[in-house]
Specification:
Layout: H1 2-32, H2 39-56, H3 64-91, H4 100-121, E1 126-127, E2 137-139, E3 142-144, H5 146-168, H6 170-180, H7 182-187, H8 192-218, E4 220-221, H9 227-240, H10 245-269, H11 280-293
Helix pairs in contact: 1-5, 1-8, 1-9, 1-10, 2-3, 2-4, 2-8, 2-9, 3-8, 5-6, 5-8, 6-8, 9-10, 9-11, 10-11
Length: about 300
């Protein structure tokens, strides 16, 4: 039972990170029907930027939580500027092109960002310092630390704020109008280009937040760290229903739970033929099953039918 509770906690924490990244995927897809496969690399840039800022502040005498906050703000700013530039330079000229063109471009941008990060930060993994109290809290025989609690709370608050933004603000109405019909929205005073750029900026901020939380929880950063979380977050978005904010959140949490429970029990289920290092297979098994049995996702795909 202790193992079960521990894996549930681990799954919720991991799923929260997936959910934050999946929200960025689903927002962009919901408005311009684009899968931004460079989104995982934005997470990586956010984590490495945070590491750089924290390293620079290491001898400043500031408390750990303040250094984490400063590095998070810096990471969000860098990632927002990066995603704004990516949208304007790489995606905007291809908005009317066949769907395969922006998809290939997104993969190219992903490889470019990985290469640039390897040049700037070097390819070797770097330890991310422990900035928050590390004393564990016991829950039914399992343990959870301050960083993991922060990840869970931050994810819940972020989703609530995002739902309010999309459903109850002027920008949210502009996003929904642009998703429905950008030409008609422009006639009604909405600026589609500005709305799409704002969506990319918000998605980048979420990816930066996920990257910093991921680095703080696992204690390591490197140039290739965004690939698997990005791919799994895309799986989570499809699992919950691409274009659906609540679906992305649900898909991320469920995928994290499936992966954690699978890692905890895969040895017993396979008579120790497979170990916990094979946990990544569960994400792709889920993707195959969802695409085969329910391609619209658990909560249904929400993409506006454009006139």
């Amino acid at each position: 039972m202790d193992t079960f509770i521990q894996q549930i906690i681990n799954g919720l924490v991991l799923g929260s990170v997936y959910a934050l990244v999946a929200l960025g995927y689903t927002m962009v897809y919901g408005i311009i029907n684009l899968i931004n496969f460079a989104h995982g690399e934005v997470l990586m840039v956010g984590a490495l930027t945070s590491w750089t800022v924290v390293s620079a502040l290491a001898d400043s005498g500031l408390p750990g939580w303040l250094m984490l906050l400063i590095s998070l703000i810096a990471a969000m700013a860098v990632c927002a500027a990066l995603n704004f530039g990516i949208e304007k330079i790489a995606y905007r000229p291809l908005r009317s092109a066949p769907r395969l063109a922006p998809l290939i471009t997104a993969m190219g941008v992903s490889l470019l960002l990985q290469t640039l990060a390897m040049i700037i930060w070097k390819p070797n993994p770097k330890p991310y310092p422990i900035l928050l109290p590390s004393e564990p809290f016991n829950i039914g025989g399992a343990v959870i630390n301050t960083t993991q609690i922060l990840i869970l709370v931050t994810t819940a608050v972020t989703l609530a704020g995002l739902m309010i933004l999309v459903n109850r603000t002027k920008l949210g109405r502009a996003m929904r109008a642009t998703a429905e019909n950008p030409r008609v929205a422009a006639l009604m005073g909405v600026k589609p280009d500005m709305v799409i750029s704002a969506t990319f900026v918000i998605g980048a901020a979420l990816a930066a937040l996920a990257g910093v939380m991921y680095a703080a929880n696992y204690g390591s950063v490197q140039h290739s760290m965004g690939f698997l979380p990005g791919l799994k977050a895309f799986t989570a978005a499809v699992f919950g229903g691409i274009g659906n904010l609540a679906g992305a959140m649900l898909g991320g949490v469920l995928l994290g739970l499936i992966e954690a429970l699978g890692a905890g029990y895969i040895g017993a289920l396979t008579n120790n033929v497979l170990g916990s290092q094979y946990q990544d297979i569960f994400a792709f098994i889920v993707l195959i099953l969802v695409l085969t049995l329910r391609p619209q996702g658990l909560l249904g795909e929400r993409v506006a039918d454009r006139a």
